[in-house]
Amino acid sequence: MSDRATGELLSMAQDQVSARLTERGLSVTDDEVKAVTTDLGRISAMMERLKPTLKASDDTNAFGRMLETFSRPQASSSSGWMEWEVNRDGPIPATDRALEKAVDTAHQLNCFIEIFPRKAEQLARRLHEENHGTQYPLYGIPFAYKDVLSTADRHPTAGVGQGYRWQSQSHSVALKRLVDAGAIPIGALNLDPHCYTATGFNSYHGRVLNPHGPAYAVGGSSSGAAAAVAAGIVPFALGTDTGGSVRIPASLCGVYGLKPTHGLIHDPGVVPLSASQDTIGILAESPASIGRVLDVLSDRPQDVSEKVEDKGQSHPRHSLGVTLEGVKIGTNTSELLAGMDEAVTGAFRRTRDALVSLGAKLVEVPFPSIDDLNACASIITSYEADAVHGNALARQPEYYPPSVRRRLLTAACVSREDYQSVLRLRGKYLAELLAQALSDADFLVCPTIRISAPRVDHIPDDAEAGGALSLEFLRMNRPFSFLGLPSLSIPVGVDANNIPIGLQVIGRPFSDYDLLALAETMRQSLD
């Protein structure tokens, strides 16, 4: 095709994009139209490549039905997890210490949007007066949560200007369960605006600083949650994860971060981004801490003893002990390990050797194209994010920074046909992974992030650069959100600048406790 013909086609495409966005009530620049047209060209090329693999029998509900065939995990034994410091001295001193640390580090880390001293102190006093600690599995333990969870007396900011508040008809189930279990919320945490980038930057509330080095990126979007745990303000924090938003900052801050199996924690009181991928996540100082919180948060059917007959769906039951003898850990050199920088490669090799020394066997397994999985996840996120934010973007553009606006403009042009096709592909990909990679191995392993944390002053302050960094951070995380699989980021070392490096382990659906048991065995044996 001649350059002139190509130019004419591009001009036609840009006219169509401009008309589509104008029809949605959006005022856009020529540069924005060009950027969106480029994005849509990539999506179109990917769909043309993947659509021939679809069969008429494939349907959009296959993914959900497949998850339903797996038994949900039983609660762990609380006595098997760590004892919290608060159990020894009561809720009031523990809450006072957490509040003091939160206030002292407010300017150093900027991890809180709002601190709740009065509410936290009242709740601590009430728990102390009842003095029935044994009735509360999380008795008097302070925590904080990403500012996307609604309560009866507070609407979340979603990380944008104070004039914006997400109006939810539901209150957060997760927060209620934690408070009912005796935990004490001390504040709402900073985040990337609308959870739609992964850098930790926030033009409304200021960026969150990495406790291990304020000059380096903290990651996001649950940036405040990771920083608060890493700084020792709280022993655990709640985040949300749609494509890596818990695991990315957990990796860069050197804490543990769990994205549970999709559907294990259902909470209608959370600001949505992509309903079919969103989940509450937990960040904590140890895998055992996450396990104890997961006991309180997870949705379990009454009959937790239900068995699955399919041998391909059996998995360990969080009883790995002090060795990993016989445990098979899978990876794929070309898809899961490609592109790691020197520091991440070194951390992976040391961890690999340590796993082998504990008795684990590393096996090479087949794995789909990371690029294709990321593209599919992006289409789902875009289409579902437009359903949440499309109208508000036109009415309240001041609450959407350039990096988020750019993604939502593209989202407004994603077709329902492509969205439905990707939903059908989702079931196919999960079935293939369970039949192959997660049949040959008990767990999969890959870096949480392929690169060491960049310096903040090396990241240009524009939508294009911020988007590129977010995509790099998301690359090894989004595929497992798309597939609905439980994923845990584990701290495994530091780079030359003493900024943490994380390794991600992935399991079969509802093997969340098995991931935690694997990580706890590694932590206890290798410390």
UniProtKB/TrEMBL annotation:
Ranges for domain Amidase come to 96-516
Q: Which InterPro entries match?
A: Amidase (IPR000120), Amidase_CS (IPR020556), Amidase_dom (IPR023631), AS_sf (IPR036928)
A matching Pfam family: Amidase
- Please give the start and end residues of each transmembrane region: none
What one GO molecular function would you report for this record? catalytic activity
| Superkingdom | Bacteria
- SUPFAM superfamilies recorded for this chain? Amidase signature (AS) enzymes
Q: What does this protein do?
A: Hydrolyzes indole-3-acetamide (IAM) into indole-3-acetic acid (IAA).
Q: What is this protein called?
A: Indoleacetamide hydrolase
Can you name the source organism? Answer: Microvirga aerophila
